[in-house]
Amino acid sequence: MTCTSRRSSWRAAVALSLAGLLLLVGVMGARADNVYNTLDTSIDPALETLGLSTTTGSTTIKIAPTNDDTKNGCNLTGSTTLTVAVGSDNPAVATVGPSSLTFTSCGQVETVTVTPQAAGNANILFSVVANDTGASFNVSTANFSVTVTAPAPVDSTPPVITPTIVGTLGNNGWYTSNVSLTWAVTDGQSTVSSASGCGATNITADQAVTTYTCTATSAGGTNSVSVNIGGDATAPVSVSGAPTTAPNLAGWYTSPVTVAFTGTDAISGVASCTVVEGATAPVSGTCTDYAGNTSAATTSSAFNYDDTNPRMGVSATSKGAAYLGSTWTNDTVT
User: Fold this and answer.
1) Contact 95, 69 (CB under 8 A)
2) CA dihedral in degrees (111, 117, 118, 120; nearest 10)?
3) How far apart are CA 298 and CA 291, in angstroms?
4) What are the residues facing 246 on neighbouring strands?
5) Which end of the chain, N or C, is less packed with Cβ atoms under 10 Å?
6) How confident is the model at residue 192 (pLDDT cuts 50, 70, 90)?
7) What does the alpha-carbon distance between residue 201 and residue 181 come to, in Å, rounded to a whole number?
8) Helices (H), 56-139
9) pLDDT in tens, 1-46
10) Average pLDDT over residues 318-330
11) Could you give the percent of the chain with pLDDT greater than 90?
12) CA-CA distance, 16 to 145, in Å (whole number)?
């Protein structure tokens, strides 16, 4: 029996070799009594399962005289024929063809083909439908079972890796709260055989941008996915403001000045600080980092400012009395 299986067709051929159907032993006489012949099958166990893993094998089926009627040899002689029907009791799982075999001589070889249709079990059954030999044939021992297995899926893709990041996202990709990182690793075609770096991660403190990588392998290959996470929940510190230009030699500003604020941020860095133009007195300002955290308002340093020119008044005095009480005098004026 030869069985071949291909993924595209799931075909399996079973060769039923009626070898020496057979040998005539002794002298054949008239068919007075039935000769109990047995179709004897020896099926290679590897061929009982039809599927992609099935390779090839062979078996022989023969008619063996039993001499139950004390008569030796094969009863299929002359112009006599034996027709055997072949069928499957579960064609949804496996079909068989041709549907019948007709034997006209000893040693004749016929072939049937078993074609799997779906996963499951089916019995291949033989039965006599025409027999003009005058003898009986037992074909039940030629029956055999077939187990059809679903083709093993072929994995052509590596695992799918999906990261999930939970946290408050600030500016420029920075997180401003605690962060949790989890990974989902799936493969619908085969089992994930190994994974590294795919455990859950909880970030509870500020940190510079850090790369996290999950790598997983299945029969379809290896895949790696990386994410970058930076955390900065702390606003800038050491915030201060001062005029951007120097006062005059006396330490005074006589025109409005520009006051700029500065600060420091150890993680994401300072993105901007308040700048006040035209200030005439101390002002308030803040600094904001790249994560979006803003410091508390801080008052700039004090500075002296005076943009008003001095005003001059004039008065006159005289030794002489004013003439007739007017502003006129007839004496020297200081």
Assistant:
1) no
2) -30
3) 20
4) none
5) C
6) very high
7) 5
8) none
9) 333 333 333 333 333 333 322 222 222 333 333 444 566 555 444 4
10) 62
11) 47
12) 15
- Report the relative pairing of strands 252-253 and 304-305 from DSSP bridges: parallel
Q: Which two tokens stand for residue 193?
A: 């055989």
Query: What tokens appear for 132 in the block?
Result: 């003009």
Check if the beta carbon of residue 47 is closer than 8 Å to that of residue 116. Answer: no
Pairing of strands 12-18, 110-116: antiparallel
Q: Amino acid letter at 210?
A: T
Residue 200 is predicted with a pLDDT of: 97
Q: Tokens for 266?
A: 């150890």
d(CA 243, CA 300): 8
Number of neighbours of residue 253 by Cβ within 10 angstroms: 18
Going by their DSSP bridges, the two strands 304-305 and 284-285 should be labelled as unpaired
Q: Are 94 and 146 in contact (CB under 8 A)?
A: yes
Instruction: Please give the structure tokens belonging to residue 294.
Output: 């803003």
CA distances for 122 relative to 71, 112, 118, 283, 299, angstroms? 37, 15, 10, 92, 91
Query: Which positions ≥6 away from 313 have C-beta within 8 Å?
Result: none
187, 220 in Cβ contact below 8 A?
A: yes
CA dist., res. 88 & res. 114, Å (int): 9
Question: Would strands 144-148 and 49-50 be described as parallel, antiparallel, or unpaired?
Answer: parallel
Per-residue tokens: 178: 């605690």
In whole angstroms, what is the distance from residue 5 CA to residue 28 CA?
Answer: 43
For residue 90 the two structure tokens come to 């579960």
pLDDT in the model for residue 148:
80
When the pLDDT of each residue in the chain is averaged and rounded to a whole number, the result is 79
pLDDT of residue 279: 94
The dihedrals phi and psi of 100, each to the nearest 5 degrees, come to: -150, 155
Give the position of tokens 């008569």.
71
Mean pLDDT, rounded, for 257-270: 98
Tokens 């001062």 label which residue? 242
Other CB atoms within a 10 A radius of the CB of residue 187 amount to: 21
